[in-house]
Structure formats: C-alpha cells, structure tokens
C-alpha cells in the first residue's frame, strides 16, 4: 500500500467508525505532514482520495472537512428495471425538446441539464490556442483533413488509447461534431428503417431521439443502477429480435450513473460477437472517474472490430467546441461516408486548438482537478438530498460523472414535479423522458456538475418540499 493510500485508509476508518463526525475539520496539510512524517504531496493525495470517495470536502481557504459518513447517505436503488420485451416505435422528441428549452435559460437552476458548469473548464487557455491554431492553419488541411478530421488530433487520440492499453490506429478515428454526431453516424452506418436496436432501460434520451428519427425500433433491456445491462436478458433479446445494433453506455451511464465491471464488459463484447451485432459505445463520461484508474471501455475487449467507441471533449474539456470522435473499427469506412454525406467536416480551428492542448500537456492535470471538484460536489449534493428529501428516497452513488438518479417514495410524480419546479425557476430531468414506454414516473435525474452555492442549496430544499407535498396528498 502506498503512503497516501495508508493515510487515506486510516482517516476513512475514523470517519466510518464515527470518531470523526460530519463537519469536523481535518488537520491541515502541514500538520498532518509533520505528524505522519510524509511529504505535503502525500497528504494532498490522501485528501484527494477521500474527496473522490465522498467522505471529505474542500472548502475554499478553510481546508478539508468531513462531509457525511456512508451510513448516513440515502439508500441506493437496488433493483434492475423491468421493461417490456417487445420492440417499440418511439415518439420522444416533443417531450425532450420541452426539457432542453428549460435548461438553456441562465435564470433557471440547471439540475435538469446534461452538461456540467462551463466554469469548470480552461476556456481562456483554449481560446489562446484557438488563435494560435488559426494562425498556423495549413490551407491544404481543409482538403487533407476534410472528413476524417485533423491528423494531429487523431494522432493524439490514438496515443491516449495506447496509454489505456488499446491499439487504435489514427486511421480508424473519425472526428465529429460532438459525440452525438458520432453516435448517429454509427447508427446510420449499420441500421436501416424498420430495424431494431438494443438499448438500456432507462436510456439517454438522445439515443431514443436518434432511433426515432431514423425510423428504427427500440428493444429496452433490464438495467441495474450499479452495474448496467442485464446480459442474460440481452441474450434473450438478441435471440428473439435479431437487432442490427446495440447502443449503450458502459461507464457512468446516463441517467443511472452505473459502471459496468470489466469482466461484464468482456462478456458483453463476446456475447455481441457471437451474434455479430455491432456495439455503439457512448463513453463521454469515461474520463470523469473518481477512482485511481480510468475504467476501460468495452472497446478494450474488442478483437473483431465490432465496437464503435464514441466520445468527445464536451463533458471534460471544451463544451461548446463540439468536437467528438469515433474509433469505428471495421465500420470506419461506412461511418466516414455517412459523415461525408451529412456534415462533411468538423470545425478546423476547434480541432487545431484541441490538438495543440493535448500536445502541450496539461490535459491530465486539468482532468484530475475536474474529477476532484465533481467528487466533492457529489458528496455535498447527496448530503443535501438526505436532508431535504423525504425518507424512502433512494439515490445512486456513481463512481464518476456528474449525474444522480433518484427514486422517489410514495405517490411522487416526476412530470408534475418538473412542472412545479420550473415554476420556481428550477429544472429537473423527469424519469419518463428516459424510456420508450411508460415507466420511471417516480424517478428524477439531477445534475450536480454546477458549482454548489446558496442558490443550489435553496433550489434542492424547494424540490424536497414539493416531493413532501406530493406524497402527502
């Protein structure tokens, strides 16, 4: 065990045993360094680890404080979903558009947003690099990089795959206008109107919109809020419906926050390979892990080129730049043709700025700081849910990302709550928008990726009062 791990273990045992209580201040870094005979860097790493576990939180200019012990957190949802087994046509877009319109207003508390706060990102440095990239732009690059994307950026992405133990050649990568375009291109490359697609239940509403828009049918598979899709149920669906694709999130799934274990990812890839069904893997939250190591994507276990791994910089570095990519495996040519026939290319200056940023270093340092911030905000947010929401509320405990899934008790109605909250200037994402069939009426997705302040505290208290009022009537 490393020195920082031993220190973090000792402090966590004190918290979980009750020796340290919520609100207690941890000794200063200097004091702990002297008393334990370790470097300040070791103490900081231990405190960062505890912060990532949700046990302590940093307060500006005040130090580190015990947040809340695990025993006092709200209980987790503990059962998988139970969707109908039939393939279903979709009609989701109008409901989703109504939600998205509310999250675009700055005067609304954005608990319903799918994006973290833009204040968490190094946008000033990216702007300077954007200026540099424009000045250095090779005129011929607009031709050479037309559809696959900036060659330097694709090389940097290939290197990041290599760091995670995966061999993904730059020629396999197609740069896109955000991950959502990558996912849509993948779907268009392998499915035709009338085909069926395997999805999680609940599923990210953008996947439901894409399936609806392309005239496809959705097959919802039971999904557990901790470890993801039920593979036995997935196999039954593969045998019965013979879908043309499977679209899912293996790391910090939206909206549940579930993390599929590595062994289960391997089994998933093997299962789909037996049926020769391509996997469209949405991995936009993969870099936002709170543990010691980035969770591998399912792509890491792909030996046949069936996994199309999609991600972007929108959630972890550059929101608004709309730069994503897909490592498309055996479908690279089909995806590139779909890109050529639709949006043709992706913003050259934005690609250049991101390539420069990755080449100059600093990305991993930014990610570490971002992860620590999000982990701390999750702990504060969950403690506020515990204080303000009624007994019986269940809340997921994601090990990454910035989304929480709540199961509300009694007669709670998420759609009515959404309307009541919006009247108070608060947006939430009600459970029914994440399903192609009736369900999740008592569920909410809440975003804790915006800075916690008195306004956020008051908004969550207001939500809690609305839920209390609902379940009493």
Automatic annotation (TrEMBL):
Gene3D superfamilies, per database record: Aspartate Aminotransferase, domain 1, Type I PLP-dependent aspartate aminotransferase-like (Major domain), Winged helix-like DNA-binding domain superfamily/Winged helix DNA-binding domain
Q: What residue range is the signal peptide?
A: none
Residue ranges of domain HTH gntR-type in the record: 1-69
Pfam families the UniProt entry points to: Aminotran_1_2, GntR
Keyword Nucleotidyltransferase (UniProt) = no
**Keywords for the protein's UniProt record, in alphabetical order:** Aminotransferase, DNA-binding, Pyridoxal phosphate, Transcription, Transcription regulation, Transferase
Asked if the keyword Transcription regulation belongs to this entry, the reply reads yes
GO MF terms on file?
A: transaminase activity
Look up the domain of life of the source.
Bacteria
Query: Which protein family is it in?
Result: In the C-terminal section; belongs to the class-I pyridoxal-phosphate-dependent aminotransferase family.
Query: What is this protein identified as?
Result: PLP-dependent aminotransferase family protein
User: Organism source for this protein?
Assistant: Massilia violaceinigra
């Amino acid at each position: 065990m490393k020195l920082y791990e031993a220190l973090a273990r000792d402090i966590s045992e004190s918290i979980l045993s009750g020796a340290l209580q919520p609100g207690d201040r941890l000794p200063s870094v200097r004091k702990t360094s002297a008393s334990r005979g370790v470097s300040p860097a070791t103490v900081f790493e231990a405190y960062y680890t505890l912060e990532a576990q949700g046990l302590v939180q940093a307060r500006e200019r005040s130090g580190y404080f015990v947040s809340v012990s695990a025993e006092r957190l709200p209980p987790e949802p503990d059962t998988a979903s139970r969707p109908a087994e039939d393939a279903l046509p979709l009609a989701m877009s109008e409901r989703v558009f109504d939600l998205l319109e509310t999250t675009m207003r700055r005067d609304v508390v954005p608990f319903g947003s799918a994006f973290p706060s833009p204040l968490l990102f190094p946008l000033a440095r990216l702007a300077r690099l954007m200026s540099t990239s424009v000045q250095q732009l090779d005129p011929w690059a607009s031709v050479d990089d037309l559809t696959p994307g900036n060659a330097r950026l694709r090389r940097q992405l290939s290197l990041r795959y290599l760091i995670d133990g995966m061999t993904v050649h730059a020629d396999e990568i197609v740069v896109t206008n955000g991950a959502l375009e990558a996912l849509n291109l993948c779907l268009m490359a392998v499915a035709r109107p009338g085909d069926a697609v395997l999805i999680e239940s609940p599923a990210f509403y953008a996947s439901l919109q894409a399936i609806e828009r392309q005239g496809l049918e959705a097959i919802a598979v039971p999904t557990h809020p901790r470890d993801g899709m039920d593979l036995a149920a997935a196999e039954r669906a593969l045998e019965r419906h013979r879908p043309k694709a499977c679209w899912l999130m293996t790391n910090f799934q939206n909206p549940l926050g579930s993390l599929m274990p590595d062994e289960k990812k391997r089994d998933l890839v093997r299962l789909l390979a037996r049926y020769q069904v391509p996997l469209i893997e949405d991995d936009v939250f993969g870099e936002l892990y709170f543990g010691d190591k980035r969770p591998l994507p399912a792509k890491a276990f792909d030996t046949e080129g069936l996994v199309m791994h999609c991600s972007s910089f929108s959630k972890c570095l550059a929101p608004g730049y709309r730069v994503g990519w897909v490592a498309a495996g055996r479908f690279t040519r089909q995806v590139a043709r779909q890109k050529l026939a639709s949006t043709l290319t992706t913003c050259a200056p934005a690609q250049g700025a991101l390539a420069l940023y990755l080449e100059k270093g600093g990305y991993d340092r930014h990610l570490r700081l971002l992860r620590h911030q999000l982990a701390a905000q999750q702990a504060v947010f969950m403690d506020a849910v515990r204080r303000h929401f009624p007994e019986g509320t269940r809340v997921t405990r994601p090990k990454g990302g910035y989304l929480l899934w709540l199961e509300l008790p009694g007669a709670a109605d998420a759609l009515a709550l959404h309307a009541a909250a919006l009247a108070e200037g608060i947006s939430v994402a009600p459970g029914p928008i994440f399903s192609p069939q009736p369900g999740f009426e008592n569920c909410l997705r809440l975003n804790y990726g915006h800075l916690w302040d008195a306004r956020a505290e008051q908004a969550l208290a207001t939500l809690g009062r609305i839920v209390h009022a609902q379940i009493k009537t």
